[in-house]
């Protein structure tokens, strides 16, 4: 622990310059007396550290002394700061280790590059977890996990979030063919389970735009107007909760053949409201069918169940069965000619 603390002192002094002993003690969670003992140990080891008394005094390193503990390039450091924002470290109990690692990286960077590394962590977030529910087509501006291939290079959005300028975008919502035009104030970009999203304010309200539905993006010359004191991580948590906790409007019961059950669970996992139930109800899985309890944000979304063909039947509610019947009838009409022309 002492060797780690000594290194932390050197890195803090290297980054901050002169630091009061009381501040070092508070940061390292030790007494001021322990800090002075550590300074003596560093000095004995050949580190050119000294203490100045007085109102403006503190502990400092001699000018020109540096130690490079990482060997990282600036881009590598920026990448680390981005990954540090993903939040997985808390779950693993690695917050202290992460703080120490970032401190070492910051100390190793040339001073002119440090602001860029810090900014990267505030403008780019990585959230590796999948959505816990399927957002509705109305939600993206808080949209869900399906979409088109990007029509705007991600570099354009990346530039936008680092230039602190307003952005004009042409956006295609799920299920729509026409573009909607928005002027937004970007906070940053979030990679959610491998899919990129632009987090921005529109008319002072936070919204989420899926990057692969942004058809055009133009920087304005107007400075960005973010809400005072609000950062990307805070806005992202708000939008993520809003999407994942959106109340479902349509509850659907369906049955599916057992040999397609595993596939259905993988595809419909976000819509399932409980574990599948076997038809015989004894939990042995002996029946040919299994029952699924599903939730969809809007009634037309039930049509995604058509992908399972006659292996899945919607049982309730009646309006959901009607949507499925109408969609199946439309498909029958569409392909009726192809069946008639098929050689016998």
Automatic annotation (TrEMBL):
SMART domains assigned to the protein according to its UniProt record, in alphabetical order: HTH_DEOR
Pfam families noted in UniProt: HTH_11, WCX, WYL
Assigned keywords, A-Z: Transcription, Transcription regulation
GO molecular function: DNA-binding transcription factor activity
Gene3D superfamilies documented for this protein: Winged helix-like DNA-binding domain superfamily/Winged helix DNA-binding domain
Coiled coil spans: none
PROSITE patterns, A to Z: HTH_DEOR_2 (PS51000), WYL (PS52050)
Domain HTH deoR-type: from-to ranges: 2-61
Name recorded for this polypeptide: Transcriptional regulator
Source organism of the structure: Streptomyces angustmyceticus
Species classification: Bacteria, Bacillati, Actinomycetota, Actinomycetes, Kitasatosporales
């Amino acid at each position: 622990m002492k060797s780690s603390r000594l290194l932390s002192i050197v890195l803090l002094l290297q980054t901050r310059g002169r630091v009061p002993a009381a501040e070092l003690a508070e940061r390292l969670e030790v007494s001021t007396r322990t800090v002075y003992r550590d300074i003596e140990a560093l000095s004995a080891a050949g580190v050119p550290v000294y203490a100045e008394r007085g109102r403006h005094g503190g502990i400092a390193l001699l000018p020109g002394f540096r130690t490079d503990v990482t060997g990282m390039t600036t881009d590598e450091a920026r990448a680390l700061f981005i990954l540090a924002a993903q939040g997985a470290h808390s779950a693993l109990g690695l917050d202290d280790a992460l703080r120490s690692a970032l401190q070492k990286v910051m100390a190793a960077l040339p001073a002119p590059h440090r602001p860029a590394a810090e900014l990267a962590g505030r403008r780019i977030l990585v959230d590796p977890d999948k959505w816990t529910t399927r957002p509705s087509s109305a939600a993206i501006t808080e949209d869900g996990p399906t979409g088109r291939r990007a029509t705007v290079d991600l570099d354009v959005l990346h530039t936008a979030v680092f230039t602190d300028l307003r952005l004009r975008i042409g956006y295609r919502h799920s299920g729509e063919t026409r573009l909607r035009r928005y002027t937004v104030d970007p906070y940053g970009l979030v990679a959610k389970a491998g899919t990129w999203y632009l987090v921005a304010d529109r008319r002072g309200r936070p919204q989420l735009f899926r990057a692969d539905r942004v058809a055009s993006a133009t920087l304005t010359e107007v400075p960005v107007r973010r809400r005072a004191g609000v950062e990307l991580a805070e806005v992202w948590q708000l939008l993520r909760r809003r999407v994942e906790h959106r109340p479902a409007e349509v509850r659907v019961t369906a049955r599916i053949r057992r040999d397609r059950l595993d596939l259905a669970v993988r595809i419909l996992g976000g819509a399932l409201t409980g574990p599948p139930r076997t038809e015989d109800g004894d939990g042995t899985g002996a029946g040919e069918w299994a029952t699924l309890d599903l939730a969809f944000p809007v009634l037309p979304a039930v049509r995604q169940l058509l992908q399972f063909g006659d292996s899945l039947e919607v049982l309730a509610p009646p309006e959901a069965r009607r949507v499925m019947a109408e969609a199946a009838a439309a498909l029958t009409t569409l392909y009726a000619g192809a069946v008639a022309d098929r050689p016998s």
